[in-house]
Amino acid sequence: MRLRLIPVVMVVLLSACNQEPTFEERYSEAEATISQQAQSIDSDLEQTGEPAPSPTP
Predict the structure, then answer these.
(1) From the centroid of its chain, how far is CA 6?
(2) What is the pTM of this model?
(3) Cα–Cα distance between 8 and 20 in angstroms, integer?
(4) Angle 7-13-18 from CA coordinates, rounded to 5°
(5) What gap in Å lies between CA 17 and CA 11, rounded to an integer?
(6) Measured on CA atoms in the order 28, 29, 33, 39, is the torsion positive or negative?
(7) For residues 13 and 7, what is the distance between their CA atoms, to the nearest angstrom?
(8) Over the chain (57 residues), what is each successive 10-residue block's mean pLDDT?
(9) Distance (Å, whole) CA 50 – CA 54
């Protein structure tokens, strides 16, 4: 019975393994995210031409 179970366990273990992303892939993803956030911030700043109101003491 155990001999039949070993190949099944091996297949399950091998199918569960995923290759981690390389440094270049992680860098590209982070760069794209940061670029999108920077563009969003820039567009928000361009839309608001007025400074924020200061609180009155």
Answers:
(1) 36
(2) 0.51
(3) 24
(4) 140
(5) 10
(6) positive
(7) 10
(8) 76 75 94 96 82 70
(9) 12
